[in-house]
Amino acid sequence: MFIYEKFKSNNHIKTNIMKSIIRTGILLLFICVAGILNAQTSQELVVPLSNAGKSGTLEVGIMYGSIKVIGTSVKDVVVNVSTEQKKVKEPDKNGLKRIANNSFGLTAKEEDNYVKVNTDLSNKNVMLEIQVPANFNLKLKAVNNGDISVEKVNGEMEISHVNGEITLTDVSGSAVVGTTNGDIKANFNSVTENTPMAFTTFNGDVDVTFPADIKASVKMQSNMGDIFTDFDMVMKKGTPKEEKDAEKGIYKVSLEEWTRGDISGGGPEITFKNFQGDIIIRSK
Predict the structure, then answer these.
(1) 90-121, pLDDT tens digit by residue?
(2) Residue 88 and residue 200: Cα distance in Å, rounded?
(3) Domain chopping of the chain, boundaries
(4) Which InterPro entries did the record assign (predicted)?
(5) Of 111, 118, 178, 194, whose CB has the highest number of CB atoms within 10 Å?
(6) 49-81 as b/e, with b when 16 or more CB fall inside 10 Å?
(7) CA dihedral defined by 92, 95, 96, 97, rounded to 10 degrees?
(8) 3-state SS assignment for residue 66
């Protein structure tokens, strides 16, 4: 009897422990879900264009987060923004609760088809996904915690980043692209004739694909990487650089550090430069 009662008592204790664990698990799950819902919010903003159906320009600048621009059949500019609260130490205000600030801090201005999108948020990662008409010019800037990507846009593109990748997919037109830490990948369906372009990064690969019939004069420099291409490129000899100092009687001649070549007889200058990483120039 003693053994049976002890067995019942142990089972009762185990049952209570299991119930307590389940209740705790459910509570933790609820807290986690609530935390996720509170930490991330999203909203859509439609910016009408003054001259619908005509080309325009989109300018975007953010400090933290990612920018994605897609060329579509829309007549307006559609901005989908979501924010993710950065993890910060809870402030100590004598036991008072901290209320989450879900403000987007986002502004969008339009004048004569020029759309400017800005955010002044400094403690949140901003994820912008923007739809623009297929024929649109872009000026995009970002600094940390994200990448910049562009798809199916035809226009002039000026894109800069500090810590992040830049990717252009199925684009047309021209581009000046630069980042400090990150790869650059670009795939062009067509390019604007007689328009110079540049692709530069410090740490990362530069991988660009052009139409097979492109005409260009290429200028390349990779300090600690290799250069690859499948174009039939005619290489040029380095041009001597002269330095004179009449007062000191010094005359110095050196070869430039750039590698140059012509594709299909030459054309507008396209610059490729990085410090650590490879340069890859492809045809399609």
Answers:
(1) 555 566 654 445 566 778 999 999 999 988 76
(2) 34
(3) 41-86+102-229+268-283
(4) Toastrack_DUF4097
(5) 178
(6) beeeeebbbbbbebbbbbbbbbbeeeeebbbeb
(7) 80
(8) strand
